[in-house]
Amino acid sequence: MTMKKAVIFDLYGVIFRRPQGGITKYIQELKLPEFFLENAFAHAEQPGDAFFQLEKGDISVTQFLDRFEKQCFSYANSNEIKLPSAFSAQNLYFNFSQTIPDEEMLNAVAILKNKGLKICLLTNNFLDDTSYRGTLAVKFLPLRFLFDNIVESCHFGVRKPDPKIFFEACRKLDVIPEQTVFLDDLSENVKSARKLGMSTILVKNSKQALSELKKITGIDVLQRAVPVSCQPGQISECSIITKDGVKLHYFEVGHGPPVILLHGYPFGWYCWRRQIPALAMNGYRVIAIEMKGYGESSCPPEKSEYSLEKLTRDVISFLDSLGISQATFIGHGWGGHVAWSLALHYPERTFAVGSFNTPASPSDGSSNPFGHWRTNSGNLDHVMYFQEYEEKREAELEQDLKRFLHVVTRAYHWENKSSVNIKTSVRNGGLLEEAAKIDSPMDTLFDDEELNYLIQRIRKSGLRGMLNYFKNHEDNKKWHLKVIGRKIQCPALMLTASQDQFCPPGCSNHMELWISKLSRASLDCGHWPMLEKPAESNKLLIDWLNNVHAKASPLTSLL
């Protein structure tokens, strides 16, 4: 059997559960004969008739409904059936539109995509110009994140089971039919695909279809999927220059309430790669800022440019540039500090705020909430190493960024069982040499391609900017002294990680004193829940966002 490189899915009856129940209920409410619609519909099931024209895009839904309604009245009159005045083809179409995504199928799509297979959605669809057209658009937007290509009959001008539309799907995927698997719930479509050489599955139910798909591909599509990630070049990215002359690069996708993602050290915006699609698919406008000192954003060498005050004002200027009056801020690491700072200093711009691992640490005036690591640096000793030797060590660290990232990851990681004393080796000037002896969990967080991308971003900016975040303790203390006694009034989320060695859960014990609308969640992992437990992180975050925005989730948060 030819190795499979692609899987093609039908939409209605496969990815979306068939809407028969809603239509049946509508017919029953009107007290029409059981097979009235099927019999009336049969008149359109001839080539050239209205339904075929609808699926080929020759006519729109409104045009079809006008014809079909007349056809229903004509059929009713000829068969002495009295149609109630409440009968409406528009209402019938509305009931048809109320479909439910099949989460098991979507989970399988995510697994296949993560395994590197090309995924296509091939559907006989319509040009919806009705007052319900937004429903279809909302449903299709998340699918465009999951599927590499979507082929719709109404835009291609050919409908299944015509072989031309199958060849078009293969062309878009750059495969031949023998390299594909096709799933559909209609036997005539399956037969047509099989004749072309495709492996086919006639879908009766999800369990049956996925069991067959597992057998054909050799991929366990029944396990829980790792959330799909966004890849550079596949989502919108842009740069703006604030009124203060700061260039901020960012990545944006989705439509809905704005959610601003603020990353920490040292992975940059890419640490959110498995959250961005999930948030967008669940109805949010997601903006991941590449913070100052990272990637293509401004990277000034002066440490004062990285004070919490300036970083906070950078984000506000960013919102001004994009015309966003208010947003939800989600941070991690130093991005978490910025998120809490925004909620305290700019409450009118903060709809809600959340943080992974980094607690809110308002000052009471007696201590510096940002200075604890300087006297007890522990796993951040490589930062002290950089500061003590500054320019002399900058070139050394940057000569082997891959090894540097391995050191940082091991330093933070909760399963650090290394016998190498990082703190001692660093102060002895042997950071990169000792790193070669350390087993690093980096490979569990990033594959080779992703790691190479991270290294490319760091090469653009260098290390100095990101390490300057750790050098403004006194300025940061003064910034928080301005809001002594102030509480955060907006909804807030604190997600802790039970095994985080640098920000243990106990660091957040005081937060209820400062935040009245605080929600809490915890995961059994280390400092990067977004990378270590992406599915669980997505569910917690999306459930909280949906609750805060009083909205339902259109798709499973597993994605």
TrEMBL record:
What InterPro entries does the entry give?
AB_hydrolase_1, AB_hydrolase_fold, ACAD10-like, Epox_hydrolase-like, HAD-like_sf, HAD-SF_hydro_IA, HAD-SF_ppase_IA/epoxid_hydro_N, HAD_sf
Q: Which domain of life is it from?
A: Eukaryota
Q: Which UniProt keywords apply?
A: Acetylation, Hydrolase
Against Pfam families, the record matches this protein to: Abhydrolase_1, Hydrolase
Ranges for domain AB hydrolase-1 come to: 257-534
The GO terms this record gives for MF are: hydrolase activity
Supply the SUPFAM superfamilies for this chain.
Answer: alpha/beta-Hydrolases, HAD-like
Signal as a keyword of this entry, yes or no, is no
The coiled-coil regions, if any, are none
What name does this protein carry? Answer: Bifunctional epoxide hydrolase 2
Source organism:
Holothuria leucospilota (Black long sea cucumber)
